Fold this protein.
Amino acid sequence: MSGLFAMDLQGKPVLVVGGGPQAAARAEQLLDAGAHVRVHAEGLCEELRDLYTDERVAWSASPVTSADVAQVWLVSVHDTDSVERERIRRWAGGARTWMLDDDVRAIDGSALDSAITEADVSLRSLRAPDATGKVVLVGGGPGSDDLITVRGRRELARADVVVTDRLAPVGLLARLGSTAEIVDVGKTPYRHPVPQHEINQILVERARRGQYVVRLKGGDPFVLGRGGEEWLACREAGVEVEVVPGVSSAFAAPLAGLVPVTHRGVASGVLTISGHDEVSADLLAAWPHTIVVLMGMGRLPELTAALVRAGKDASTPVAVVHKAYSPQQQTVRGTLADITERVLERKLANPSVIVIGEVVDQLDEPQQAS
């Protein structure tokens, strides 16, 4: 039994209605609890598509029926209007099926005690109904819901609308009892369904409507997160904007794989780069400390080969940390010469962080105290 659920769902069928990030977060929690998840949605967000590879997940694009509800132990509803939610609630009541909606209530009115902590209840009261016309750029941290800052958690509890990326901790909204509207602008590598200028426009327009807008990102908004562009767009439009920093995956994800980005006597600096952009291989090869690459999995073979050609020792240690702080986390270690082959063997893709340098091996063996 895991986390959100105060009942034994091991091996039991459950139904998730909706295909957005909040539905994905709930589906992942249900899988962690051992359930078999059926998803009903016209389409699936990136996170749900990732989960769909699990043999315990089934997907249907057809509308939910009363028979679907009657066949499961629990139904969780997201991304639906009040009419459909109430219809599903009636079906669940007639079938004596547990139902969770976005505010994590069960159909018989009983709270699932493990669903909402006392701290979350207190935070919910901070939401100001008359809070208007403001944008807050919030860093959600490196992956796990509980690695967001206290201030970021508070701002989520106040939000009227949350504009979110695919790697942001959207599942936290359910635990906060939030009824905020979710606007998914999630990007995947080389695929930006909502261009940056449109995201900027969404933030400005929603704030001008008098809404309290939280722009929720993974990691930190200003570490390769385009937070600066969004801040400038708000300022130029005359919209009040605030920034809440987050724990950057550039530093936290390596640590999840037991790779410190600095280590006394080994590396006293960190060079963080985007894998999407061209950076001089000669410059990188000459850097004597740690290199951290974000969004670089698509160019890993090219990057490692370029470093070796530029004079970097082919035996330089490399680590790839995939989906840090999640149940799917994996860490692969190798060298510039063989890391691409090792990653391909494990079939790792994004989201992953690449670390290059001698720090990769420092926590492999107990280090002698000094």
